[in-house]
Amino acid sequence: MDKLRAMTVFREVARQESFTLAAAQLSLATSAVSRYVAELERWLDVQLIYRTTRSISLTPAGRVYLEQIEDILQRVDRLELAAKQQQGSVSGVLRITAPLYLGQKWLSPFVSEFMGQYPDVDISVFLTNRHVNMVEEGIDLALKIGRLKDSNFKYRPVSQTLLTCFASPAYLARHGAPKTPDDLKAHNCLYDFAVGPSKRWHMVDPTSGRELSVAIGGRYEVNSGEMVKQAVLDGMGVGYLPDLFIEEELVSGELLPVLEEYRQAPVPISLVYPQNWGVTTLLRTFVDAFVERYGADWCG
């Protein structure tokens, strides 16, 4: 029995919940699909699928086995793709995720140019402010803001940003500017809860160098930096976002920085991909071009 082929067939049957549909997807006869699954069950000495005249479903053992082989099959798929792309052709599918604002600001124009240059490339972009499990969700590349700690991933530094506390001139004229982080208690702080569940802004004491975790309160919270920025522009309160979100408004004077001396050290912006996935020609070409467009040299 070709065990790897049998695993692939079983995975497709589980996805389609049908031997017939799996056979069509794999360009096999339905009888061949059924035989692969039956041989796999005999080899494992366990039933993987419940079969009725109308439907199929995975047994508990089948669900566990599917989870266990998924990573193996994904690695095989990527090794095959990498082998093909080592010949130098920039082609294939690239699945990318990024925070909403950063994706719209940087990825959107760049992807259009890249796909125009490489017509054999398909790109799928998933913009979200939630945490994405790249391995489970089949993501090849992520654009991330923040310090990276997971050794299971490789990263390519792109740029950096500063977290900035800011308000509109109209709001500051009415309420005054906070002089210390403690003064924020008297202000309506507009919170982007995509950055974390606790209502705290992290700053650094300019005298001691000690990091401060500042509890803030306010009447408005949202999981969108763009909506926080708009609320601050409307004079609703004080915001705290990466400065790349508000750079144009800071230059124009529509927004003003506050508590500048309490800023944290710059926060990195990086491209990230799983450590155990091969670096294909497509992935390397995309990353190299993106870094050349937006930022830093190769580091690590």
Automatic annotation (TrEMBL):
CDD domains, A to Z: PBP2_CrgA_like (cd08422)
Keyword Transcription regulation: yes
Keywords: DNA-binding, Transcription, Transcription regulation
Transmembrane segments annotated in the record for this chain: none
Domain HTH lysR-type: start-end pairs: 1-59
Family: Belongs to the LysR transcriptional regulatory family.
This protein's name: LysR family transcriptional regulator
